[in-house]
Design a protein that fits this description.
The protein is of the alpha/beta class. The protein is built from 9 helices and 8 strands. The chain is 38% helix and 19% strand. Strand 7, helix 8 and strand 8 form a beta-alpha-beta unit. GO terms for molecular function: hydrolase activity. Keywords: Hydrolase.
């Protein structure tokens, strides 16, 4: 039987009740509430990450904007491959501090250098600001590591959850035509890949499972402010995908974005790209940010990412 995990049922029931009361009292979403909501949920449900040997902040300059980043190096005397991490939050919320526990876990699990980007957010900075910032970090990460005199191996993986997964997939699409940007792997955690919101799970999981489809539409309306063709900028509908990197997708059964992950995997596999998918049939969107409730599932994600990057 397809049912949400019993570990999440009481928490979801309480969340839905509180949200209904807010709406009844005239609540309307804002960028402030979105940012506070994601930060507060993560702070309450995710324990601080493990200590690492070297963690410091840096700046990566780009065209028109210098992107703040945080670098996590688990073994700063050894050359390690590099992960650029782009956080989730619907292009409107999240940040380096919010995702610090996640990045620490990624660095500890994989043994790789993690570089987390503080990319610009909508609505103050609409499309393509955040995408441009992610691209800046992917291209400039090597120079940043050189400035800090940190050893690294010239092998790059992009990892992102939700809206960050959208940015990763978009950057990988662009990198097919950029000889200066070689991406070895991408890991997309319950990614947003179809800005047209046209697949069945958008309606099937429209409400009641943390991320509501109406909220996704609101995110995108704040992100796209200049009449962009949303199909044209959707990674799922990219016309050319034959040179995309090895891909691991994490998907959740009760996620409005579930079918985008399934469709993207099918497209990549049809094009001959190595693409694996780790599916949790009873999970909801953003379950990595609910680790206290679903610790085993979160641990499985970090283990699989580590194995995938090792070639398993």
């Amino acid at each position: 039987m397809h049912a949400v995990s019993p570990k999440l049922v009481p928490w979801l029931a309480d969340l839905n009740q509180r949200n209904a009361a807010l709406i009844a009292n005239g609540y309307l979403p804002t960028a402030i509430s979105a940012r506070e909501g994601l930060a507060g949920m993560t702070f309450l449900q995710v324990q601080p990450g493990p200590p690492l040997a070297w963690v410091n902040d840096e700046l990566i300059p780009g065209p028109g904007y210098t992107v703040p980043v945080r670098i996590y190096h688990p073994t700063p005397t050894e050359e390690r491959a590099v992960i650029v991490f782009l956080h989730g939050g619907g292009h409107m919320a999240g940040g380096v501090s919010v995702y610090d526990p996640v990045c620490r876990r990624l660095a500890a699990a994989t043994g790789q250098v993690v570089v987390s980007a503080e990319y610009r957010l909508a609505p103050e900075n609409p499309y393509p600001a955040g995408l441009n910032d992610g691209h800046t970090v992917a291209r400039g990460v090597w120079a940043a590591l050189e400035r800090r005199q940190l050893p690294y191996r010239h092998e790059l993986t992009l990892i992102g959850d939700s809206g960050g997964g959208a940015l990763c997939a978009s950057i990988s699409t662009l990198a097919q035509f950029d000889p200066a940007l070689r991406i070895s792997n991408q890991v997309l955690i319950y990614p947003s890949l179809d800005y047209t919101l046209s697949l069945p799970s958008i309606q099937e999981n429209a409400e009641g499972y943390l991320l509501h489809s109406s909220r996704v539409s609101w995110y995108f309306d704040n992100y796209f402010q200049h009449s962009e063709n949303r199909r044209d900028v959707s990674p799922l509908h990219a016309p050319f995908i034959e040179r995309l990197p090895r891909t691991l997708i994490v998907s959740a059964g009760f996620d409005p974005l579930r079918d985008e992950a399934i469709a993207y995997q099918a497209r990549l596999q049809q094009a001959g790209i190595v693409c694996e998918r780790l599916h949790f049939d009873d999970m909801v969107h953003a379950f990595l940010n609910l680790e206290n409730l679903v610790a085993d599932e979160c641990a499985a994600v970090y283990r699989r990412i580590a194995g995938f990057l090792q070639g398993d």
